[in-house]
Amino acid sequence: MANSKAAPGNEGNPWIKWACIAIAVVGLAFYFYPRSRVELDDQGYDASVALYRICNQKDTESLQTVAEQVAQWQTEGKLSEQSHASLQRVIDLADEGDWNQASRECRRMMEDQVQR
After folding, report:
1. Domain range list for the chain
2. Sequence-separated (6 or more) residues with CB below 8 Å from residue 109
3. pTM for the full model?
4. Positions in the chain short of pLDDT 70
């Protein structure tokens, strides 16, 4: 006798489909959400390049050296506020051990300097 019920894989819960679509839409919105560009001065750019290498190598000693240099440039007025704030965010992330996020932040900063 044939079973009149459909196979379990054929029945789709519409809530699951809509939840997946909603998650995808929210993810795309966050990915393409416009963010403000970071404008670095020359020393800020040089420091971001150094920080990018440091973050990829997870080099805590060099991180402290660059952090001290950035602080010195800030007190001497050789670094803009925006450059200092952006670099300090990366330094803080790396100092907390979040090397991957720090590396991504550095890359974004450097990409923002490219004239498009």
Report:
1. 42-113
2. 38, 40, 48, 86, 90
3. 0.68
4. 1-12, 30-36, 115-116
